[in-house]
Automatic annotation (TrEMBL):
Name of the top EC class for this enzyme: ligase
Alphabetized SUPFAM superfamilies for the sequence: Adenine nucleotide alpha hydrolases-like (SSF52402)
Protein species of origin: Kineobactrum sediminis
Name used for this protein in its record: 7-cyano-7-deazaguanine synthase
Function: Catalyzes the ATP-dependent conversion of 7-carboxy-7-deazaguanine (CDG) to 7-cyano-7-deazaguanine (preQ(0)).
Signal peptide: none
Length: 233
């Protein structure tokens, strides 16, 4: 893992994982501010909250990526998560342990495809908006997971074997949601374009009750700025 502090990346290519939510949109803005040429990558993976894909299109257009690629997967074919199996209800109360909204191996699958695209683009950098502070207990959002994946990436690729070091950037890893929102606003992010809700309507209306909505709402309170999210109630 690495966090740039200098804007010395002008012209460098980077793959940015963009879900259409608050965190990944902030990461895209951060990568652009650091001078990277951003290649945004989103996934149509069978998620029940498909409004996030429309949000990803909006934020990529607004922030000016070089290319936005949407890769179709069928993680709903294996299920195991409230986000990919409509028979499992999205919890509307806080739960202990790893919640049912955890999608098995999702970040590993997403990062693997990002790694492949980075090789094709001859890009040394991948950005992902994982967070160890407000991460809902997901095991694939922890610093040790990202560090392990980065080690694997540099062992498993032609680029790595030939001496091209790939870095996984996690600029939000140790930031609270309020700090993330303040950072994004300073970079001109319009959070009204984003969707975080696990069960948003097709029009992007948020339930206001799931974990993602609670974290988002609390983040705006912490940041001391109006919450522009469109809630059902």
């Amino acid at each position: 893992m690495h966090l740039d502090t200098e804007h010395n990346n002008a012209g460098k290519r980077a793959v940015i994982l963009v879900s259409g939510g608050l965190d990944s949109t902030t990461v895209l803005a951060m990568a652009r501010a650091r001078g990277y040429r951003c290649y945004a990558l989103s996934f149509d993976y069978g998620q029940r909250h498909r409004a996030e894909l429309f949000a990803a299109e909006r934020v990529c257009a607004a922030l000016g990526d070089v290319e936005h690629k949407v890769v179709k997967l069928n993680l709903d074919s294996i299920g195991g998560s409230a986000l990919t199996d409509t028979a499992i209800a999205v919890p509307e109360e806080e739960t202990a342990g790893i919640p049912v909204t955890y999608v098995p191996a999702r970040n590993t699958v997403f990062l693997s495809i990002a790694l492949g695209w980075a090789e094709v683009l001859a890009a040394d950098d991948i950005f992902i908006g994982v967070n160890a502070v407000d991460y809902s207990g997901y095991p694939d959002c922890r610093p040790e997971y990202v560090a392990a994946f980065q080690t694997m990436a540099n062992l498993a690729t032609r680029a790595g074997v030939e001496g091209q070091t790939l870095t996984i950037h996690t600029p939000l890893m140790h930031m609270g949601k309020g700090d993330i929102i303040r950072a994004g606003l300073a970079l001109g992010v319009d959070y009204a374009l984003t969707v975080s809700c696990y069960q948003a309507t097709d029009d992007g209306l948020a339930c206001g009750k799931c974990d993602a909505c609670r974290l988002r709402r609390e983040g705006f309170r912490e940041a001391g700025v109006p919450d522009t999210t469109r809630y059902l109630s």
